[in-house]
Write a structure and sequence with these properties.
With 154 residues, the protein is α+β, with helices and mostly antiparallel strands. The chain has two domains: 32 residues; 106 residues, no CATH class. It contains one helix and eight strands, in the order H-E-E-E-E-E-E-E-E. The strands form two sheets. It has a four-stranded antiparallel beta sheet, with no helix packed on it. A four-stranded antiparallel beta sheet has the order 3-4-7-8, with no helix packed on it.
């Protein structure tokens, strides 16, 4: 048997082996790459619901809650594991905060998107464990209390 024929005969087996390795490592690779992170710009007023209100009172929410802030957390939001930025850079139109979040976080790494002028409401999603740094750029938004926020986590 010639070498050319032997290599050609092993090609389908090598291709199948390579595909199997790729399929087995794909979840690990996707976990290492942070998802596309963008906080919703607002929470619509029709999404805000209240329960257990005092008898006789009626609720009216007249405007959406606008995105005001974003930052990584060392815990799920209900545990209040807010982190302080490692550095802050100010320009005429923006604030750029850098958070170094390398290392082990037993409760996971989270991104918190905060709504309302006093951060009354938080939406959060878990970041991949491999995330080492988040750079958050904040600019004043169109509405009172609103900020336009760009999130870059790696």
């Amino acid at each position: 048997m010639s070498i050319r024929r032997q290599v050609a005969g092993n090609f389908p087996r090598r291709l199948a082996l390579g595909a199997a390795v790729l399929m087995l490592t794909a979840p690990a690779i996707s976990q290492a790459i942070p998802p596309d992170l963008e906080c919703p710009s607002s929470i619509p007023e029709k999404s805000v619901h209240f329960t257990d209100m005092p008898s006789g009172w009626k609720i009216f929410v007249g405007a959406p809650l606008y995105l005001h802030a974003a930052a990584p957390m060392s815990t799920p939001p209900e545990m209040l594991g807010e982190l302080i930025q490692d550095s802050e850079r100010r320009t005429k139109t923006s604030i750029v905060d850098t958070y170094k979040i390398d290392g082990n976080f037993p409760n996971g790494k989270w991104l918190a998107c905060k709504y309302g002028e006093s951060d009354q409401m938080t939406l959060a999603r878990q970041l991949p464990d491999a995330t080492d740094v988040c750079i958050i750029t904040t600019r004043q938004g169109k509405y009172v209390g609103q900020n336009d926020i760009k999130i870059d986590c790696k």
